[in-house]
Every structure is written in structure tokens, then in C-alpha cells.
Amino acid sequence: MKNSIAARLAAMFAMASIVGFALIGAALHHVLVRELARHQNDQITNRIADISYVLEHARSPGLGERMRQKLDALESAGPRTRVWMWSKDPAFQYGSNVSEMLGLVRDNTPGAEVDIAGNKMRLKSRTVPANDLWPEVRFAVGVDSQPFISTLHAFEKALLALTLTGTCLAAALGWWIARLGLAPVERLSGDAQRIGPGNRAQRLQLPSLPRELADLGMSFNQALDRLDAAYRQLETFSDDVAHELRTPLANLIGQTQVTLARERDAGELREVLQSNLEELERLRAIVADMLFLARAEQGAKARSRVEASIADEVGKTVEFLDVLLDDALMTVEVLGDATAPIETSLFRRALTNLLHNAIQHSIRGAEIRVEIAKDASHARVRITNPSAPIAPEQLARLFDRFYRVDTSRPNSGENHGLGLAIVKAVAAMHRGEVFAEYADGRATIGFSVSLN
Amino acid sequence: MRVLIVEDERKTAEYLEQGLREQGCTVDLAFDGIDGQHLALHYDFDVIVLDVMLPGLDGFAVLKSLRAVKNTPVIMLTARDGVEDRVRGLQGGADDYLVKPFSFLELFARLQVLTRRGRAQETTLLRVGDLQVDLIARKAQRQGQRLDLTAKEFALLALLARRQGEILSKTVIAEMVWDMNFDSNTNVVEVAIKRLRSKLDAPFPTELLHTIRGMGYVLEDRSAQAGG
Q1: Which of A168, A192, A384, B181 is in Cβ range 3.0-4.6 Å of A369 for a Cys bridge?
Q2: What is the domain count for chain A?
Q3: In the listed set A111, A138, A154, which residue is the last one of a domain according to the structure?
Q4: Is the pTM higher than 0.95?
Q5: Could you tell me the mean pLDDT of each successive run of 10 residues in chain A, 452 residues long?
């Protein structure tokens, strides 16, 4: 089974929030870094301005000495700030490793991060040109970066913690929302689980479903309806088969038992064997027809189709049934013709069944009409005969196996109720369909075959 | 006619043996594929009845080894009505194919066709007792009296006369006379026979056309048999 939808949604929420937090965090981080750098630079710039001011506004002799004192004062006031001063005149030199430090920066560039004895500092330098009061002096100001780095680290930690907490929260919320949102699906599933072979009539409760699921529910219910219909057909079919086979089997067993219970002469025994043989032939015919129907239902198609005139086939079938028509004083009128690719033996079988059906269900002297027509895709045979009224629900079931409109005369010898089912199978094997209509005292039953 | 029956179902094998013996055949039996193969390869039969599902070696394998050395006609039997089986059997060299349940009459008729194949024995004037059937003139007469038959009635009589003494099932008759090769579940053949009988037998003292209940019809002169 796949992951649950709730878990997947929760994971997706979590992922989305991670991405969101990360983007915001990155932006904030960027802004903070820039602001901190600017702040540092401002500090340095201010310091440089201070020093320049002291230098430029000094008039007294011993300026170098004064400058050093001033710088000392500055350093001790802000321990995180350091100053270096260098000049050719040793009086204007201040700070340790002055020349080395000044080699690290160039004038008028934004502050550079340098490592001084394990301390990160931001350095900036400036050169004041010589005049009559002082020589050319270059000095550099460094500000300890540590406080800024600490601030940044604290911010990063907070950001990470926030992101993780937020993500977890989003995942949890997402899971909860998903569960809440999916509750109707669970109800649906519960509904569906209650449907089984025992209560096939039960359906999903559509009114309680949200709009998004209503379609699904409806499709599901329709699928259930179709399955139920098929199931019911199969059930009655099994019953029918059992019934159809039971009668001849009962006859066979009973008759044989009765016969064997006494001494019989050869003539009587022959009678029984012949009667048995008739029943057995009936069984064989049913089994053969059932197999034929089963194969057609499994999608078997007519194999050796040849282009043939349907009117010719009708003619041959009428010729075959001629004696029956003659006995019943019936005539057959054939109208129209069409050629179609058909397997003639199957086609004749369908025609025989249809015409035989028409003969059996018409009164003596009736006229049976066979109409042949075709359209772009199919050729159709319609067989019309005067008939007792057939109700619409009976029409719909005419082609079902073992269905008999006239239930009062079942099992009339040759007729085992598969005739029209076989017509339907033959039509299906030719990618066609069957149809049945009743109007004005006339029944029309027929089938179509595909033209390609 | 010498027939080999290879069939593991004893009841089937035994009734086939009895039936064929009584029709004047010499019958050998094998109950599995290995025995069947041995007999089929080492003795000469006119025709072999071969079941598909056999213990030891199946019918297709027996057929294959047989076809490697000889051309004895083979008719295969199967309980499965699959087209694949049929195609496989016929491609493997089987001459005919019967699906169980089949009627004994049909099997016997097909065996006769297989062994008769190629032998032309058609005559144009057939006689059954006092009946004469002229296949060329398409006329039939009994005791010198012309029978007034329709075309189909004549075709039916000609078929029965050509195969006189042989029981013809309704299915065979429908196929040979009307070209309807399926079980039609109609009583056309019965009615047609009844009509033929009314013209053939009713006006005359002896009956030639007999019904064998559950099996079919046979045309034969039984008075001649009774008389010797």
C-alpha cells in the first residue's frame, strides 16, 4: 500500500514550510550581515574622522606626542577598537607591528576582515598628506568583529530553531488538516466496506459526501449496480443451468432405477435405453450450446468470414425450415439484400434460431417478414411476425439464457431456451448487436453484423 | 477395418471397442500414450483414434512421433473445445478432430470417411429392397411405381440410400441435405423424414426407412434380412 494521504500531505506541508522558512531566513540573514558590516564600517569611519580631526586641528608643537596620547585615550575608552599610526617620523608611530598591519589594508577601501592574534577585526586605513606641521601620516583603525559575529551566530541559531519548530508545527498541522479533510473519504471507505455478497443492495451514502467525492461515489455506485446485475444474472444462470440439467438427469436416474428394479425383457430395456439416449442427447446439446455461449462471452470472434449475400443465407435457412413453415401454413417474405463478411455456418445458425422462434410464436397461416438493410457500419436482419403482446421488460430479457416469455411451456423438447442467446452470441462474434421491438401486434427481433 | 484406440478413460475405450467390433472392425486398445505409441509405430492400422489427454505421453506427442514415420489416418478426441487444441492437432498432422461428448455414430461415420478416402465407389443407380434411386435422372421408384418427391426429399432419400444400412444422425442429415452444420435444435429433420416416409413407405407393405430412437434414421430392407 502507498503512504497514507495524510502522511504525504503532512510531509508536503513540512517541505513547503522548510522552503519558506529557509527563503525568509536567508533573506534576513543577508540583510543582517549587510547591516552589521555597515554598522562596523560606520564605527571605523567615525573613528578615522575623529583621529583626522585631532590631527588636522592640532597646532601645538610635540604633535606626535599628543597624537599618541590621544590614541591611547581612544583605545582605552573603547577596548574593542584599535589604532595604528605610521609615519617616517618615529614620533608619529603608534601601535604594535605597525608596518605589518598597514600592509594588510589599502587606503579608501571598504573595511577588510583580518585576523589579528586570533581576533577577527575589520580594518580601514587613511593617509593624511604632509604639511608644515606634520609629516605624511598613515593610520589604520580596526574594530573587533567578535560582537558582530556573535550576534550573527545567535541570530542563525534562533533562525534554525524557528525553522525546525515551524516545520514540525506545519507538519503536525498539515496532518491534522489532512485527516480532517479526508474524513469523508474514511466514511466512504467504511460505507464501501459494509458492502458484501450478503448485502449487495447497499450503496454509498451520496448526500453526505462533499462535492469533490460525489462524482466518485456516484461512479462507484454505478459500478456496483452493474456488478450487481451481472452477479444476479450469474446467479440465476447457475440456477437455470442446474435446473436445466437436473430435469434430464433426474429422468435418467429415475427411469434407470425403475427399470433395473425388476426383470425386464429386451424390448423394454431397449425402450429405456432409447429414452435415456434422448435425454442424454438433450444434455449434450445444452452443454454444447453453453460452451458455445461461454466462448462467445470470452470474446471469441467469427474466424472464417467471407463476403456473402444475406438474402442468399436467409433463402437457404428458409429452405431448411421449409417443412415447418409448410406445416404451419406460413410464408416468409424477404425484403432487401446486403452483402457482409460473415461466417456462414454461424450466421445460418442465428437465422435458423430467429426464424424458428418466429414460427413457434406465430399463429398458423401467419406471414413472417425478413428485412435486410445496411448502413455505413453494419448490416441488419429484422424478422417480424405477428405475436402476442410482449412487455418491454420481457423484450429486454429475450436474449438472456434460458429466458422464456411463455413460462407455461418450458422444455418443449427441442427448445431449451438458448436459441436467442445464441443469436446474441453470433451477433457479438460479428461485432454486431441484437434488438427486439414490439408494436401493433407484431414482434420484430433481429441482429446486426459489422461490415468490416 | 483395423482400428487402434488410445484412450485412458476405460469406459470410453471399452464402449468404443465393443461398438467398433460389432460394426466389423478389428480393434486394439492402449490405455496410455507410451503403449499407444508403441502399437501405432510397430503395427499397421487403417485408422487410429487418439485421445489428447493421456498419461505418460500426451496425444500430441504420440501423433508427432507417428507422423515422423507413417501416415496412418488419425482422429483425435478431446474434452476441451478450445480452438487452439483443434489447430494444434490438425497442424500436428491429425486428420480429424472430435470433441467429447461426441456420438458414437458420428465417430464411426468419420472413421469410415477417413478409411474410405480416395476410394471411389459411387454408382448412379442405388437399390434398397424394391426401391430404386437413380442419382442421374434424380428419380426414385418402388415396385416400379414412381415416387413423387420434392428436390429436398429426393436429396434426403439419396443420402440415406447411398449410405444404406448406416444409421445417420439428425445432425449429419441436416448437414448433408441442407448444408446446416450445427445442432439446430429444430425438428426439421423429423418432419422431413415423416413426409418422406409418407411417400416412400406408407403406400407399400414393407417399411424401408426406420427410426432408431435417440440416434437417427437408417434406410435398409429388413425383410430381406429376415428372410435370410
Answers
A1: A384
A2: 3
A3: A154
A4: no
A5: 76 90 91 89 85 76 78 78 81 76 72 74 82 80 85 90 90 88 82 79 78 84 84 76 80 88 91 88 85 80 87 93 92 92 92 92 90 92 91 85 65 66 92 91 92 86
